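Exercise: predict the fold of this chain.
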Amino acid sequence: ARKAEAQAREAEAKTKQANAAREQAMARVKQEEQFLDMDEYNKNQKAKEKEAKRLAQLAKWKHDMDNNEELPAQEPQYDFVPGEEEEEVFNRPQQTKAQPANKAGMIRGRVSPSDIAKFIVSRAR
């Protein structure tokens, strides 16, 4: 009977030890998952902060460009050689979606600031 009790206590101790080891392993796994979640959260936060900063810079730039009247809107200058009108038409850049139909709001042949802002906002969503 004493031998059976000793074996039962020994089996119980082994069971407790196995349960403790299992709980430690589960705690390590849970902690590792939390670290991964934290890293993902921080990565997303940094991306959001970076995008917000870029949008703020864009808004400031757009505001500055709208208020800056020192730079007149100009048509882009194309190379023109007399007698080669077909090449001039051929070398002109194609109109893209980002370019407005009239070029009055453009500065030095670039895309207008409002189109840039629309593009960045659409990419942020």
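Check your answer against the key: Residues 86-91 have pLDDT under 50 and may be disordered.
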